[in-house]
Amino acid sequence: LLLVCVFMFSSCQGIKTEKNDSGKITVAASFYPVYIFTLNLLDGIEQIQVECMAEQNIGCLHDYTLTSADVKLLNDSTVLVINGAGMEGFVEDVFSNAESLKIIDSSENIKLLCDEGHDHEEEEHNHTHGHEENSHIWLSVENAKIQVQNIKNGLLESFPQYSEKISDNYNSYIERRRNLDLWN
Fold it and tell me: pTM for the full model?
């Protein structure tokens, strides 16, 4: 499957701006949290359709397997928004061969937390866990704000013709999130 994906993407050249069957430009998001961020930033831009690669009920992508529908979505997309921080490791080889697919990594400039190592000395658990970076960055309100800003910056670069609407949507979304924070 990986070889098929690489072949499909290697045949594409340049940055795609063609429209899908519905006449819209497709922006894909790797999974639900970044999909929601992206959807809010592109709200009201009728020429762009946002699609989520993973189903809504997938909490994170650690055990996710790329499907043929995912390959088609990625091939039809102009932009892919990812969580980053190693979350989408299942398609990193595909990313490196997808020259025409713009990748927006929402984890840029986010300091990752490390899960502290710990020892288990119980009979059934006699092993040590090392330090691992935690890629669940959207769970932090502050990190989520940075992710939204990173996605906004990537969308502005990819779609300068919609810069005013994307910027307005960003300001509105951040204000709504701020109001939710105050409500708590």
Answer: 0.75
